[in-house]
Design brief:
386 residues, alpha+beta, five-stranded antiparallel beta sheet, 12 helices
Length: 386
């Protein structure tokens, strides 16, 4: 089958535009919904003691759980919860909902009735780090707008189609994932989105490997082998990652214990999926020459941080480094990738998109974005340190 002929079909362009619009609507609606329904529970410290059980080590004394009787030392037993409420503990404890929380206190089993009557906006920790999520929000919006721009301006270009589809799938994978705001009133639908997320994200990663094969052709045997290995690992990683939320829903997999908590699982699902497509791109860069090399360097270089963010997050967790700066690696990757790719498209003519801005305008726009981001970082860091 000739892929170039398929791309030239008007149905492909229309389908990608529809997918891009869906991603935009889903992302904005889910983010707004999450901020409205997310309740502030007040657990500031926990210790996992068994699958689906964790001991409370710190509580905000002004929180709903403290008011309704939860104490430091109590063990919350999520396995004894119903599926719907256990999914809420995984995603969002909803504002306005009354939860029946099974606990073990001094060897006896009890049920606490906890009313979520405070919004996440009341959480002091959230107030300190919410600017990070605004960065990620802006980055995803820009990437989706770029994807739509590429489809509209170059509907018959295979390179533009591959890049646009990559951006859309990465955004959807993030939107439906744990870091996204995906939540529905139906727990099976919420879990379905979480299980779909790694397949969307990893397909976007695979498309970068396919994009790299478009350069320095014919591709060497090493590059073909690397691409095949990348596809196999991405498929296996997506399958394993999908089992995690399904197992939580069924009460069979707690990723704090067993294989899903091991370094090996993290390497397969977080490290290799981010590194292997970049290795494919690096091999293409090695073999490419002149303008062709410049094009792939700018394309993959702009997206590299986006691919490496999950790797950095995994490594930080493996060495027990947690906190706002760790979460920042994930959120800041999207705006940086968006700024880099925008500059590559408009300033470096990564693709002939029908027009180009003059270099002064490009540098001016990028400078405004960069200065704005750093000003926001400085303001947030000053407030956090204060």
């Amino acid at each position: 089958m000739n892929i170039a002929l398929v791309v030239r079909s008007p149905f492909v362009a229309r389908g990608l535009i529809a997918l891009c619009v869906f991603a935009l609507v889903q992302f904005v609606a889910s983010t707004i919904l999450a901020h409205v329904i997310d309740g502030y529970v007040g657990l500031t410290g926990i210790e996992h003691v068994a699958p689906f059980q964790f001991r409370v080590t710190r509580i905000d004394p002004k929180s709903p759980v403290a008011r309704d009787g939860l104490r430091v030392g109590d063990v919350i037993d999520l396995h004894a919860m119903g599926r719907a409420q256990r999914v809420d503990w995984l995603r969002y404890l909803r504002d306005g909902v009354r939860y029946h929380v099974p606990i073990v206190r001094n060897g006896s089993h009890q049920i606490l009735n906890v009313s979520m009557d405070r919004n996440i906006a009341d959480d002091p920790r959230w107030q300190r780090i919410r600017w990070q999520f605004y960065l990620g929000f802006a980055g995803i919006l820009i990437l989706l707008v770029l994807a739509g721009f590429l489809v509209v301006k170059r509907p018959n270009s295979l390179d533009a189609t591959l890049l646009a589809t990559t951006l859309i799938l990465l955004a959807l994978g993030e939107n439906f994932g744990y870091f996204g705001a995906w939540f529905t009133p139906q727990d099976w639908l919420t879990i379905g989105g979480l299980a779909l997320s790694p397949f969307l994200w990893n397909t976007g990663l695979a498309l970068l490997a396919i994009y790299a094969m478009r350069f320095a052709r014919p591709a060497s045997r090493l590059r073909r082998i690397a691409t095949g290995v990348t596809f196999a690992v991405l498929a296996a990683a997506a399958g394993l990652s999908a089992l995690d939320p399904i197992g939580w829903w069924l009460g069979t997999i707690d990723d704090s214990f067993g294989f899903f908590s091991t370094i090996g699982y993290g390497v397969i699902t977080s490290v290799l999926p981010g590194l292997l497509p970049l290795i494919c791109a690096a091999l293409a860069i090695r073999d490419a020459r002149g303008a062709e090399r410049s094009r792939i360097v700018w394309a993959t270089g702009s997206l590299a941080l986006l691919f490496l963010a999950p790797v950095a997050y995994f490594v930080a967790g493996a060495v027990n480094l947690h906190g706002p700066l760790v979460a920042l690696t994930k959120n800041i990757a999207f705006p940086i990738a968006a700024i880099g790719l925008t500059y590559a498209l408009l300033g470096r003519r990564l693709l002939d998109v029908g027009f180009a801005l003059n270099r002064a305008a490009v540098f001016g726009a990028v400078s405004i974005l960069v200065v704005g981001v750093f000003s926001l970082l400085e303001w947030a860091l000053g407030g956090w340190l204060g």
